[in-house]
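Take a look at the protein record below and flag anything odd:
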Amino acid sequence: MSEALRARLGQGGAGGPALAAREAQLVIGIIHHPKLFGRFESEILELTIHDKDLSELLSRTIDALVNEPDLDSGKLRHQLSGWPEAEATYQRWSADPLVKVIRFTKQNADDKDAEAGWHDAFLIDRQHKILSAEVTEAGAEAHKDPGREKIWLDSVRMSLSAHQDNEASRD
């Protein structure tokens, strides 16, 4: 694998800010709509959150909901506010433009919108992570043949371009 390719992957080419925002949408969605935990418990428990602070916020959210399954958003937020780091992470991500514009993350979203939006975001997140792992694996093999590396790099560029076009069309 070339040094340029290694550097690109090291910069989070397979994730970056869009990945963190999508993960934050999932976590903030759960906090604003705790009933999602009862509906999507297994999916929530399989979430992999790359941002350390956001992962801790999810962990504390899950702990609170496991201990008190009937918590509403206000009571859940009150419990989370007992941990300054969790509260700071919540404040930062709930104010993020890529999080607060999404309908299902809003506190006033109805249960149906919250459920459908959260599930869609979860499926997109899971699929993106599967594809990113496959791209990384293919890249690891591409170094064996310089021609394959160029083909792989071109494929990654096309994939990133298509992803950016997809994200732009949602706005």
In short: The chain has a mean pLDDT of 83. The two ends are 35 Å apart (CA to CA). The CA atoms of residues 52 and 77 lie 19 Å apart.
